[in-house]
Amino acid sequence: MASRLLQVMVGLMIMTNFSYVVVRTDLRNYVPFLFGTSFGLIFLFGPLIYFYARAVIDPSFQWQKKYGLHFIPYGLQLLINIPLLIMEKRYWLEFINSFLSGTAVIRSIEIFIFAVQDIHLLIYLVLTYMLIRSVNNRQGNGNVQYLIPVSLRLNWLKNLLYSFALFLITVFGLYIFILIRGTYHPVTNYVYTLITSGIIYFIAYRMVLSPEILSPDFAQKYKAYMPFSGEEGDVYMQKIKSLMLDAKLYTDPELKLSALAEQIGLPSHQASKLINEKFGKSFNELINEYRVEEFIRRVNHDDFKAYSIYGIALEVGFNSKSSFNTAFKKITGKTPSSFKT
Questions:
Q1: Fewer CB within 10 A of the end CB, N or C, for the chain?
Q2: How many CA atoms lie within 13 A of 270 on its CB side?
Q3: Where is each HTH araC/xylS-type domain found (predicted)?
Q4: What sections of 210-320 are H helices per DSSP?
């Protein structure tokens, strides 16, 4: 559920940005009404953020039909937008041209709607903050732990909340700007698009870096975990090293923690804790470290002279250029090309 809510959220922001692309390109001459599809979408952001936060930190959360009531404000906005969306093409072009020239007058009803939109988003951001704070205060009171710790979930949600708080401050500033002017101005589009693009890139970056945190599950949980110590921990650690060095398990781009855990004979959550304790890093960090080391070994080897840098990256287990570059820079502090002679 968390991943679906996040996907919808990002999709709506992309949709908003695309509608602004329409007015700045020749698309406005063909499908000018697409500019109006983004009107009122801000009413969806608040509920989506709140329910996404619940899905990330509340193991009992299940989507219920009654939650759809939270989206009624957008439904009302959509009803208001209908006459605009079915407007004739020539009227749309007149409206867009006046918008771009900065002469489109803002009406009283629009001033009211913008104010309601800002207040609506603020309410949901406050509710999300209170939810995060209440969970944070309860940490340590129970003995149930999760494969993705609650603390990591909360840190991610706080960062996302700060991003949307900045978004709200920006939107409110733009509201004051056009209120003082009395007319719309295209610069508001640029700023709005810039801040939504920033949030999209931030989420995408975290998705590459730590995808498991953005959509964690509660399926694998455990109690009173006993740390691996002495010979038992060393035996499992050697098994992992053997699978990496001899079998080169890391070259499988689809390698999951569950597959490694099965090979060494441990449940996934215990394998994760073993890696944390014995290697001092997460599963993804460990695998990427082996992949980077293998890349460095191969990059100047005669057998791989005909390969491109990205081609070698694929051979050692990376499945995308972005994940390869991110991991390589994080581990070595250098770019892949600096190792090629």
A1: C
A2: 18
A3: 238-341
A4: 211-214, 230-245, 257-264, 268-279, 283-299, 309-315
Cβ(261)–Cβ(268) under 8 Å?
yes
Give 218's DSSP letter: S
Rounded to 5°, angle at Cα 181 from 176 and 185: 90
- Please state whether the predicted TM-score (pTM) of the whole model is above 0.90: no
Q: For residues 147, 151, 152 and 157, what is the CA-based torsion angle, rounded to 10 degrees?
A: 130
| 32 close to 93: Cβ distance less than 8 angstroms | yes
Taking the C-alpha atoms of residue 210 and residue 294, their distance in angstroms, rounded to an integer, is 22
**144-146 and 221-223 strand pairing:** antiparallel
Task: Tell me the domains of the chain and their CATH numbers.
Answer: 2-214 (no CATH), 228-339 (1.10.10.60)
pLDDT by residue for the chain (341 residues), tens digit each?
A: 788 898 898 898 888 888 888 888 888 888 888 887 788 889 999 999 999 999 988 878 888 999 999 999 999 998 988 888 788 888 888 888 888 888 888 888 889 999 999 999 999 999 999 999 988 877 654 445 666 777 888 888 999 999 999 999 999 998 999 889 888 888 888 888 888 888 888 888 887 777 777 777 665 444 444 556 667 788 888 999 999 999 999 999 999 999 999 898 888 888 888 898 888 889 999 999 999 999 999 988 888 888 999 999 999 999 999 999 999 999 999 988 888 76
The residue type of 19 is S
**Looking up tokens 């801000």, which residue turns up?**
42
